[in-house]
Amino acid sequence: MDYVHAKLRTNMAASTIEEYNAVKKTSEESETQHQGGPRVLADQPQSILELQRDLEDSNPVPVHSSHCPASNIPHPATNGDHDLPLRIKEGLRRHAKAVVVITCRHEGQRYAMAATAACELSLEPPSLLVCVNKSASIHSPLTKGADFCINILHSSHQTIARMCSGKVKGEARFEEGSWAEDEQYMPYLSDAQANFFCKLDGSFSYGTHEVFIGHIRSARTNGPVDPLVYVDGSYIPLGQA
Ligand SMILES: Cc1cc2nc3c(=O)[nH]c(=O)nc-3n(C[C@H](O)[C@H](O)[C@H](O)COP(=O)(O)O)c2cc1C
């Protein structure tokens, strides 16, 4: 059954439930023919990647998220796959990300949180998005409408990244680093690689997280390109990535 499950798990090409069921049926028929002995097929793919390529080649229909809204219909490819969270984590260890610190001010209180789930959205309108765990202290002010700043960290900002990811709490996160504030009292890191000052322009909840969309009202950059990168559980300068 492993081959069948692997094939189903990697069924990224099936864009509808019907296509999914068709692939499942074909796989099950194939499995039935090979019961009772070790599966040795000349054309059996050797890895998940090969399986995925195999399926993509045979059915190049892209998946659209509207087919499987995570809110109510379980994605067929994740059905019964208990190893999936582990494999996702392993996959994401290979996803090198620039580290940012999201900052905001709400009712006189400053907030800062290290994050990697920050992403460009569009230039028209100029926008970015960030994904914030609902358990993080910055989540509450953002849900109450606080504007925010995305500070792209420099390779020398490891200590700030650590402080803003739980090592210290609240205002103490601003004790290290060249923190400044703009005319609207928005805290920002003045020697960050870049600062994007955003007006909160939308949000939606997705499971444990909230996605916040920021309309960029101004941006500044600082020095040559040399960001702090997080990959495989470690901070590294881009030059070593
Ligand atoms: C490298 C790194 C990246 C992180 N990325 C995110 C992220 O994108 N979103 C998020 O909600 N938390 C992220 N976190 C975790 C938060 O930084 C951490 O939970 C938060 O600072 C806790 O804040 P609190 O003590 O104020 O609640 C990340 C942590 C690290 C070390």
UniProtKB/TrEMBL annotation:
<dbReference type="InterPro" id="IPR050268">
    <property type="entry name" value="NADH-dep_flavin_reductase"/>
</dbReference>
<dbReference type="GO" id="GO:0042602">
    <property type="term" value="F:riboflavin reductase (NADPH) activity"/>
</dbReference>
<feature type="domain" description="Flavin reductase like">
    <location>
        <begin position="92"/>
        <end position="237"/>
    </location>
</feature>
<dbReference type="InterPro" id="IPR012349">
    <property type="entry name" value="Split_barrel_FMN-bd"/>
</dbReference>
<dbReference type="InterPro" id="IPR002563">
    <property type="entry name" value="Flavin_Rdtase-like_dom"/>
</dbReference>
<protein>
    <recommendedName>
        <fullName>Flavin reductase like domain-containing protein</fullName>
    </recommendedName>
</protein>
<keyword id="KW-0560">Oxidoreductase</keyword>
<dbReference type="Pfam" id="PF01613">
    <property type="entry name" value="Flavin_Reduct"/>
</dbReference>
<dbReference type="GO" id="GO:0010181">
    <property type="term" value="F:FMN binding"/>
</dbReference>
<feature type="region of interest" description="Disordered">
    <location>
        <begin position="58"/>
        <end position="81"/>
    </location>
</feature>
